[in-house]
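Q: For a teaching session next week I want to show students how multiple molecules come together into a single three-dimensional assembly. I've collected the sequence lines for a complex. Could you give me the predicted structure tokens for the whole thing so I can convert them for display?
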Amino acid sequence: MITSKAKILCVDDDPDLLNINASILRSAGYEVLEATTGNECLNITREKQPDLILLDVMLPDINGVDICKQIKSDPEFPGTYILLISGVETSSEIQAKGLEAGADGYIARPISGKELLARVQAMIRLRDSEMALRKSKETIERQLNQNKIILESAGDGIYGVNEDGTTIFVNPALLKMTGYSAEELLGKNLHFMLHHSKQDGSPYSQENCPIYATLRDGASHRVSDEVFWRKDGTSFPVDCSSAPIREGDRMFGAVIVLRDITERKRTEETLKGALEKAEELRLLAEAANRVKSDFLANMSHELTTPLNSIIGFSQILQDGLYGNLNEKQNEYVSDILSSGMSLLGQISDMLDLSKIESGREEIRISKFLLKDILKSSMTLFNVEALKHNIQLNLEIEPDADVEVEADSEKLNQIMFNLLSNAVKFTPDGGSVHVHARTIHDAGYKIHDAAIQEGQIPPRPPLLKGGEGGLPDFIEISIVDTGIGIKTEDMDKLFKEFSQLETPYQKKYAGTGLGLILTKKLIELHGGKIWVESEFGKGSKFTFVIPLKPIG
Amino acid sequence: MPHKILIVEDNENNRRLVRDVLVYYGYETIEAENGEEGIKKAKEHKPDLILMDMQMPVMNGYEAIKALKNDPDTKHVKIMVVTSFAMLSDREQILKAGADDYIAKPINTRELPERVKKLLSEDI
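A: Of course. Below is the structure for the complete assembly, covering every listed component.
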């Protein structure tokens, strides 16, 4: 039976013989080509690439042996097999020559049709199996080549060991990492060359080595906190894994892949160092903060003691407990008293600030009517406003006429600071307007990055009836017709000890603590404050605090 | 008989200030410079009220109040703590220590006599 439809070229100068052979082969199902001369044979071979040539040795132009030589030496015809045919008279010497020239077989005439067919079939079978072998050899070579490229181009060091632990291959990256040549490593047990000691220099036995454990248990292993040793005696940290080489149930050895993690370790160390440094700095800052708080607490006590005398005796004098003063004396005593009170206010601000900064300030929540606090805080400025002909207005939207849960003392302080600034910086004949309303949370995401300190936030949407949920913030604005703030000064406003430079400073005294304290008091409530201002025209300070404590 | 008030305060000026105000309003005063002296004078003079400073050398106000309130001779004596406004955040602690009332320093000389009068009129 013919398994493949092979192409066979029959070459003979005797047309009868040619015809007989061709007919036998055709009837067996082969595709048959015919030639009567050597040249014709070569031409057809070139064009049609037959699988097999039945070649008569004695041809008129070129003899069969030479044709055989030509075809077999030409790499263009790797799959063309040649079966030489000769007459009885042909000497065994010529047969030998033909086979030497590369012929794959020899047939001597006379030959029966049956035998011819059997010989051809055998030859075709031989050819098919040789071609298949050649193909699989090529495939294997290609794969080997690929593997070689992978091994050679890998950045990780790779080596293979047989079941005894003897090294059977190494890649260039491993050689580069370790400083050894391939000859120095191949055939050796690399545990004793590269992994012989631990990081501290103590010996490392192969029995304890997780890499070679693969050879014992057949499992994959990975270690990332070990060191490998170079030829020059130095070491480097590695991330190393080993995997068994298996075929079915049998293990032939293992492949070990190692990565030099010096850089990674260094990055980790740097990071660790930076974190430690940051922690150190944090502790230092905390300690400094504590020292500062203690210092301020002590200082406030020391300052209160003389202030107690200054304020107390001034009051006794002013009240005439031990005799009346004349007008001038009365005026001086009033000045001493108001200076004392002002000093007290500043010490108080400073102390509050230090308490907040050291996290010791707590808010004491109570329930009260917002309008009560607003009204009472404004009353405090009635005299001052009257003196400078400043108009004080309070406008509470109906939805802000509510009870709030907050620290009333601190809300008073916030209002006092903002109003005192507004009145202080507003020229005679101006106005200070306080406006209160409620606002929905959506408008003021407290942690929204958009509300940056000192920056004008996008206007929040007003709460309309029926939309959204419950109103949960109160918003209070203090609008003055004062001297205003320059844009470039805006972000300095809420910073410690930064009362703005001239022209503000000379005319308007203060410690510069008022606004930062106000901001912190608002933030203690979970609120925000910001400012809008036009230099020369006035300022608008707005703050929001939750109607109820958050969380 | 005027009420007798013991002023325990380490600063001389402030002691004099409180004394002059209270004398003006008709009280009899006794003075002590620290907690220890305060306890001694309290046992000796049996005052109706003690105005107690908190931050003092030798013995501070807390210790003095505790000692006074634990002593059967003096435990009935009313104590008003006079402390820096800065220490008012500790008010719970002050009351817990046994004080009956507190007033912030710097003292408002208009408020002090009213508060004293009120405390003296209260029954404990």
